[in-house]
Specification:
single chain, alpha+beta, six-stranded antiparallel β-sheet, about 60% helix
């Protein structure tokens, strides 16, 4: 006979859990159906990000320029020190050789003069302090001994300096490698963002950029384009004008590609004036001009609080500079960047 027992009812807890889960599933499905697809960033947003990356690239690039300049300076200083040490050691060896010959001659006669013992001492200064036979030394011998002592001290000092500079050079090379990596990373990130844009967007940005550059050029030339500027500042500015259209390349300082401080240092070099390589150092290379109204065509103009960008003042509120990767040497409004001060070389 079949059983007529009632089936077991689910517990109240189990019912609650199942009901809650079902409600959540329905809610999630509804949200997924109603959610708008993620939108791609606009052209202006991408351009703003790219511009920020290029600014960071230039910051790193100027530090890279400074590290490269320091490396070059240290290498020259080390080379000079090493040459001095080599020459000094040769002179010292020559003095010791002549003293050795004198000692050999005296040995053959059966005695070595106390003065020769003094010459051959490992520490002539100490011997001089303790010697009681100074009256047996001629003035020439005393002078020669002093030269030996001075040469030994100088050699020890130069070797110590060379060692310190070699350690500094190793640190600088390490910093250089880090800065190069940072620059390359920022550039790669910017290129990736640019590649995400459509051809039409890229063309629109390029056209807008070109219009702004032409407007700045007209404004600068309406102010005389530097024609009234005389002296070396005017000649350096004219040199910069001669390379308008040259591509920006980080770390480049002419004669066909430039970064910002590479352009200004190159232009001054054309008129026989050496100014430092980096924008931060150029900021201290002359008299500072804090008011834009006091700027003259040919003055250097420093931008950003960390002074990582520099150009030439071109008159009428314009600058002539190498802006950033992807651009060329051109005129641009001084208001496009945070002005800090001018520098009159």
């Amino acid at each position: 006979m079949a059983s007529h027992r009632r089936p077991k009812q689910p517990s109240r807890t189990r019912v609650t859990v199942l009901t809650t889960a079902a409600a959540a599933a329905v809610a999630l499905s509804a949200n997924a159906a109603n959610a708008a697809p993620s939108e791609k960033p606009s052209m202006d947003e991408v351009k703003a990000k790219v511009d920020k990356l290029y600014e960071q690239t230039e910051q790193a690039s100027e530090k890279l320029n400074g590290a490269e300049e320091k490396q070059d300076r240290l290498e020259k200083e080390i080379s000079t020190l090493q040459d001095n040490v080599a020459r000094g050691q040769a002179d010292l060896n020559e003095l010791r050789d002549s003293l050795g010959l004198a000692a050999a001659a005296q040995y053959r006669t059966g005695s070595i003069d106390p003065s020769v013992q003094l010459f051959l001492s490992a520490d002539p200064d100490d011997y001089l302090d303790k010697a009681s036979t100074m009256d047996q030394l001629s003035s020439q011998q005393v002078e020669t001994l002093k030269k030996v002592s001075e040469k030994q001290r100088a050699l020890a000092q130069q070797r110590s300096e060379a060692t310190e500079k070699l350690e500094d050079l190793a640190d600088t090379r390490s910093e250089l490698a880090k800065k190069k990596k940072e620059v390359q990373s920022k550039l790669a990130e910017a290129r990736k963002l640019l590649n995400s844009m459509t051809a039409a967007q890229k063309a629109a940005i390029a056209a807008e950029d070109a219009r702004a550059s032409r407007a700045s050029a007209r404004a600068a030339l309406d102010d005389g384009g530097g024609a009234a500027v005389t002296g070396r500042a005017g000649s350096a500015y004219a040199a910069a004008q001669s390379v308008i259209g040259s591509p920006y390349v980080y770390g480049a300082d002419g004669a066909s590609t430039f970064d910002c401080s590479g352009l200004t240092s190159w232009a001054y070099a054309q008129v026989g004036v050496h100014i430092p390589r980096t924008s931060q150092e150029q900021a201290n290379a002359g008299t500072r001009i804090y008011s834009q109204s006091d700027l003259q065509v040919g003055d250097l103009v420093i931008f950003y609080s960390d002074q990582h960008h520099v150009g030439f003042y071109a008159g009428n509120g314009q600058v002539l500079h190498a802006p950033r990767t992807g651009t060329v040497v051109r005129y641009e409004s001084i208001d496009n960047m945070p002005f800090q001060f001018g520098v009159r070389i």
